[in-house]
Amino acid sequence: MKVIVKDNEKQVAETAYLLVKDAIIDRQYKVLGFATGSTPLALYAEIVKGFQRGELDFSDISTFNLDEYLGLPPEHPMSYRFFMESNLFGKINIKPSNIHFFDGLTDSVEAECDDYEDLIASMGGIKLQILGIGRDGHIGFNEPGTSLESRSHYVTLAKETLADNQRFFSKASDVPRWALSMGVGTIMDCQEILLLATGEKKADAVAAMIEGPISTMCTASALQNHPATTVVIDKAAASKLKRLDYWMQTADDYNEMYDYLLAARHRYGLE
Ligand code: PGA
Fold first, then answer.
1. Other beta carbons within 10 Å of 130
2. What's the Cα-to-Cα distance from 249 to each of 24, 151, 177, 209, 253, rounded to whole Å?
3. How many CB atoms lie within 10 A of CB 7?
4. Distance from the CA of 37 to the center of ligand 1, in angstroms?
5. Closest CA to 58 of 91, 100, 102, 82
6. What domains are there in the chain, each with its CATH number?
7. Rounded CA gap, 211 and 180, in Å?
8. Separation between Cα atoms, residue 212 and residue 206, nearest integer Å
9. Which CA distances in Å does 265 have to 250, 254, 255, 257, 258?
10. Residues with catalytic annotation?
11. Relative to the CA of 139, which ligand 1 atom is closest?
12. Ligand 1 test: best mutation among 133, 166, 232, most atoms within 8 Å of CB?
């Protein structure tokens, strides 16, 4: 895991934008995974600005979102599809037919989940998946106790998640109790992962994800075994990391390491 610690939320979004831009422009990634929630909003605003500056073109990019509430149609203002339309997809040149979501009104949860997995696989897999993290360490809607090998599935939302999400609904009883979500295994299959977290409320979950044991009790901890995960967090979210100094030391030292190696090769007559 690469851990990048920034001073504040704005810097987290700016750093994440540069990483997304590199993935789209340098690595030519065509299949991206997006997440909802408050955390990626600032990144989405940066992506919209980048698109308006002419830096990004989404005309041949396809997307998969991580999860969707059960029981809400796509045009419902609290659906994740609506969230993505309002905050990103409606503001860039992505083709509607290239946007993929779970159908929250499916007549078969099992068939819907199987179809989602098949569609992702048929497109060669997700190249870059953006993630947030829940206070209970969930990624997607994979609550504590979910198998780290799970594929797309229906989820019974935990009390903490319902409480966190209530702020978006007029009353508690309106919050859907179930959702469809990519599984932890589905997320682990993504080629690269970019996880964002900001604020002190996420500090325990971030510490468990990065330094805790790999456990279903914090599904984000599975990412310790993912070969290409970058975590971009602010100081508040990093505040409970025991090895913060080490993470900060390693975050940006790739070029420095090569400079050092080149100098050493020169010193020993190899360059
Ligand atoms: P948040 O949600 O960004 O709204 O905090 C994150 C998550 O639950 O994954």
1. 27
2. 27, 35, 42, 19, 7
3. 10
4. 4
5. 91
6. 2-240 (3.40.50.1360)
7. 28
8. 9
9. 22, 17, 15, 12, 10
10. 67, 136, 138, 143
11. 9
12. 133
Whether pTM exceeds 0.90: yes
Q: Is the CB of 130 under 6 A from ligand 1?
A: no
* Ligand 1 geometric centre to CA of 132 (Å): 5
**φ, ψ at 128 (rounded to 5°):** -135, 125
Q: Give residue-wise pLDDT tens across range 147-205.
A: 999 999 999 998 888 888 888 888 888 899 999 999 999 999 999 999 999 999 999 99
CA dihedral (90, 93, 97, 98) positive or negative: negative
Q: What are the two backbone dihedrals, phi and then psi, of residue 112, each rounded to the nearest 5 degrees?
A: -60, -45
Nearest Cα to 2, choosing from 247, 172, 266? 247
Question: Ligand 1 centre from 92 Cα, in Å?
Answer: 23
Residue 185: CB within 6 Å of ligand 1? Answer: no
The string of pLDDT tens digits covering residues 30-84 is: 999 999 999 999 999 999 999 999 999 999 999 999 999 999 999 999 999 999 9
Q: Which residue bears the tokens 């422009």?
A: 25
Q: Is 104 in the pocket of ligand 1 (CB under 6 A)?
A: no
